[in-house]
Amino acid sequence: MNHTPRMKVTDHTRWVVIDMLRGNYSKRAIQHWQEASLLLGLSEYLKQHDDQAVKREVWSFLDSRFDSSGDWIEKPEYVDGAILAYAVMKLEFIDLEHYRAAFELTWRMIEAHIGEDSTIMYRTFMKDYRYVDTIGFVCPFLVSYGIKYNKPECIDLAYRQIKQYELHGMLEDRHIPCHAYQIGDLMPLGIYGWGRGLGWYALGLIDSWLELPAGHKYKASLEESIKGFATAVISLQQANGGWNWTVTRRECRSDSSATAALGWFLLNASRVPGLTQICLNHADKAIHYLAGVTRRNGAVDFSQGDTKDIGAYSTLFNIMPFTQGLCVRMMHSNIVRSRIHS
């Protein structure tokens, strides 16, 4: 986590020094969700293990991102930063109140991205588009922050973001999101069935639901969304246990990043009455796929590279910290551990 590989913006495999000189090799926003996933994985691990060496590394990471007052050293400009703030909020061994300034700034940054339709923009300079990525970036943070600091408007915003996407960004009767949609004419953009896009929706939906307390006014509605999406996800899983980078095409190669995100979703969707056994069975298949593409050094291989634009997807499949963190998170969850021990 303290030496996170830089994720490339381009697919160039030669003359990459030119990209570096031009500032096109990597972007800080991409690193936020890589680091966030690793931190989420380690926080799940630390729930089960009092590992002082790992805690020291986490403290080192926090000290490199936050100042002595608990505020960001480098303030996030984009919504990608919200998932990193959420990952910090999931650490159980730190004083979260110390980082309240950073959480409040993250909320103000998200507020600045609210568009004319009262949903959150991916970028303020792309105000007419709503991306599926944004659901995974912001919704779990908004719910967690809203619950902890009694800000119901944050929870309302997260719920609205999910439900508006379901209304305008889903393939009718299929529960498969497109990459984005345009808020004016509500036209879909990109493709329906981009694997990591399903993963972003899955993470935003399931983690938001998990953060809500029992009996909350939005809990049952999100549970219905989980049921519909779980049915779609299960029907699109390949025989090898993975999901392809375009989930609706058998000819595409499997994407470990999509598989890790959707595996985490199904694992936790098993908490919903009526879904337990089928979701656990298909989560197991995802875990076996991911084990099969893990190198001997522990690195999970074959994740699709960073997306270039709406409809412009990477052709490179390699190691991705985002995938690594989700796999660690999955394997150290209470559900998996209880099944292994039984």
Task: Please describe what this structure looks like.
There is one protein chain. By secondary structure, this protein is mainly α. It has one domain (16-341): Glycosyltransferase (Alpha/alpha barrel), CATH 1.50.10. It is built from 13 helices and five strands. The strands form two sheets. Strands 1-2-3 form a three-stranded antiparallel beta sheet. Strands 4-5 form a two-stranded antiparallel sheet. Helix 4 packs across helix 6, helix 8 (195-211) runs parallel beside helix 10 and helix 10 runs antiparallel to helix 11 (276-292). The two termini are 32 Å apart. This is Glycoside hydrolase family 88 protein.
Please specify the SSE layout and strand pairing.
Layout: H1 16-22, H2 28-48, H3 52-65, H4 80-89, H5 100-111, E1 129-131, H6 133-148, H7 152-168, E2 178-182, E3 188-192, H8 195-211, H9 219-236, H10 256-269, H11 276-292, E4 303-304, E5 317-318, H12 321-331, H13 334-341
Antiparallel strand pairs: 1-2, 2-3, 4-5
Organism: Ferviditalea candida
Pfam families: Glyco_hydro_88 (PF07470)
Keywords: Hydrolase
Notable traits:
mainly alpha, Glycosyltransferase, 3-stranded antiparallel beta sheet, two-stranded antiparallel sheet, 5 strands, 6-hairpin_glycosidase_sf, hydrolase activity, hydrolase, PolySaccharide_Degr_Enz
